[in-house]
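Whiteboard transcription, Tuesday session. T.W. wrote the structure tokens on the left side:
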């Protein structure tokens, strides 16, 4: 996202998809071939009209992202769906397809991981040397990144304060990872659970996932300095001494004056991704503009209490019960306790017309998520508590069809 944009002037969207065998759903490490088929040579990124296609850490994950910030989310879902079809057309002769969902249900990361071998490889090799990237927390997690701009400390402080408060609620509408290693994990958002454990060798890099209450550039750069010092003994060449090494659920990117939200699981169709993005964005905007509480109240939100709410949301999604009255009051809610589902439905009514100007399929996705729960809940309804390998294949093949057709998953 280019600098120079003020608060809520634009949004950047990044969507990660796994490449799998059309018949078996085994992961296929062929993203370099996809990019080469468009660019004519091996590359890390290629522009395709309004989107960019790019690589990630591993060869089986492809990212589709807006080609710079967009002023409106209207039309983004349709564009991504059309380009998903282009990718699938490239993959068809190879026997592959794109698969949505934040985690592959039975991938063996020890056996199946192949790191990106081309340009930028020194960064990936450094991560692998320090942490060992053959694990679910590195090679089996797909998300949507939401990038929001700011200018100056006032906008940074407002945006960061609002995002910290919203992060614990995200899994309640976005969780899509209830299965790992062929088994139901008991968590609706297993991706976040493995994500927060993947850098335990240097715990400060991820922190508690919920960012610390820092609201100025000077304070944030002091935090980054701590991370760089902790990393230095493991990274003597300074390869990873960059702001993106910060692995919290939202990170400040001063190089483009934006905050990148990383806690959103990828959905079954771009319409659902954009529906989640629109809900999250509307809530952040309301908080940052002090709709219910003043900015100083938001800034005092306690990290430990936010982490406790996130933990519940990761485990039980929309069914989690929030009993923190101070937290609920941040949204103008006076109830002593409320389920995350009811809170999101209340906020949707408060923020109407949240779906104004959005595509019809995005509005339908929003209505489905609010009524039936996140994709993980719907996957569980289809699978049951102890699914067979055949049942997993059947449901996740259906998810692949949803992605290809731009359809919602309704079990």
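and on the right, the sequence the group agreed on:
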């Amino acid at each position: 996202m280019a600098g120079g944009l003020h608060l809520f002037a634009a949004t950047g969207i990044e969507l990660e998809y796994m490449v799998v065998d059309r018949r078996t759903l085994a992961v296929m490490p062929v993203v370099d071939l996809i990019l080469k088929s468009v660019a004519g040579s091996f590359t890390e990124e290629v522009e395709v009209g309004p989107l960019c296609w790019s690589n990630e850490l591993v060869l089986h994950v492809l990212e589709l992202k807006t080609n710079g910030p967009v002023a409106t989310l209207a039309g983004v879902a349709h564009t991504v769906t059309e380009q998903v079809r282009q990718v699938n057309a490239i993959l068809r002769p190879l026997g592959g397809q794109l698969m949505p969902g934040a985690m592959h249900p039975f991938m063996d990361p020890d056996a199946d991981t192949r790191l990106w071998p081309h340009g930028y490889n020194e960064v990936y090799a450094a991560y692998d040397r320090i942490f060992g990237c053959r694990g679910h927390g590195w090679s089996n997690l797909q998300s949507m990144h939401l990038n929001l701009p700011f200018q100056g400390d006032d906008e940074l402080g407002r945006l960061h304060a609002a995002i910290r408060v919203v992060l614990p609620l995200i899994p309640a509408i976005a969780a899509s990872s209830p299965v790992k290693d062929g088994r139901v994990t008991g968590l609706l958002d297993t991706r976040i659970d493995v994500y927060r454990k993947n850098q335990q060798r240097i715990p400060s890099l991820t922190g508690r996932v919920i960012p610390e209450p820092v609201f100025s550039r000077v304070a944030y750069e002091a935090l980054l300095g701590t991370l760089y010092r902790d990393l230095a003994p493991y990274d003597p060449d300074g390869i990873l001494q960059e702001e993106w090494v910060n692995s919290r659920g939202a990170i400040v990117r001063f190089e483009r004056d934006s905050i990148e939200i990383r806690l959103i699981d990828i959905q079954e169709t771009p319409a659902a991704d954009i529906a989640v993005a629109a809900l999250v964005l509307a809530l952040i905007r309301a908080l940052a503009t002090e709709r219910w509480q003043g900015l100083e109240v938001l800034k005092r939100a306690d990290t430990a209490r936010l982490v406790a709410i996130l933990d519940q949301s990761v485990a039980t999604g929309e069914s989690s019960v929030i009993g923190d009255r101070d937290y609920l009051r941040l949204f103008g809610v006076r109830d002593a306790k409320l389920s995350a589902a009811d809170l999101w439905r209340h906020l949707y009514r408060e923020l109407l017309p949240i779906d104004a100007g959005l595509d019809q399929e995005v509005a339908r996705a929003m209505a489905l998520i609010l009524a039936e729960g996140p994709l993980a809940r719907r996957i569980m309804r289809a699978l049951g508590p102890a699914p067979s390998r055949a049942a997993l294949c059947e449901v996740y093949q259906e998810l692949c069809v949803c992605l290809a057709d731009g359809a919602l998953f309704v079990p």
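Someone added at the bottom: DSSP finds 17 helices and twelve strands in the chain.
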